Amino acid sequence: MNRSIPRPTEGSLAPLEAGTVTLVGGGPGDPGLLTVAGLQALQQADVVLVDHLAPQESLAQCRPDCEQVWVGKLPRGEFVAQERINELLVKHALAGRRVVRFKGGDNFVFGRGGEEWQACAQAGVAVRIIPGVTSSVAAPALAGIPVTHRSLVQGFTVVSGHVPPGDPRSQLDWAALAATRTTLVVLMGVKYLPQIAEALVQHGMDPQTPAAVVERAGQPQMRQVRGPLGQIATLSRDVHPPAVTVIGEVAGLQLG
Questions:
Q1: Domain 20-133, what architecture?
Q2: Which of 18-27, 67-76, 109-118, 143-152 has the least mean pLDDT?
Q3: Which of 28, 30, 55, 228 falls between 20 and 30 A from 205, CA-CA?
């Protein structure tokens, strides 16, 4: 039997309503890249569930009585299960609070925003979506790399690298990705970058294809490493998450 599911609230600048959840994308880390609507939501929230990749400086805009709950997933560190996050969102909303889920990037680009929306909908909680600036585009841009360029490439493909090629959990066709002729942007791929680069070369991508790894984009510690695909994993071996990998001719551009 079909069940009616609450739809996202319309109007990103409308006041938050009690008993609702607002999914706010915080952008790549620079508080200046948080949207006006996202900032307004933080200022109105009764409860904020926040990730470690969200711009922490923006939390200073919350009211003094706003409850801030850390629900991050640090690599090899503190970890709050997604099921627990879903429970907290529903719990606070059903208690009549204005709840904000504050994440880095965009909630719907590998941010589990879809899962959180579904959990709220199943509990009858209304959800509002405030998109964020996704790191898949922002990180390359901040490094001077356009993911598209009319004379070089007509599209870009964004994938997750959290599992390596050949892993039974992987749903990606790396042969197809190697042949797509679009810019390839890999999120969460630092750990398995050697396997990813190897798979792309094995499937026919030129090992001299330009590549870049952008670490901590939009933050004071930001840095980038560039080199050919066949060597990029070695060149960036001391890079740590969060980082975005860009593979394609645009990674060879030196703008500015």
A1: 3-Layer(aba) Sandwich (3.40)
A2: 67-76
A3: 28
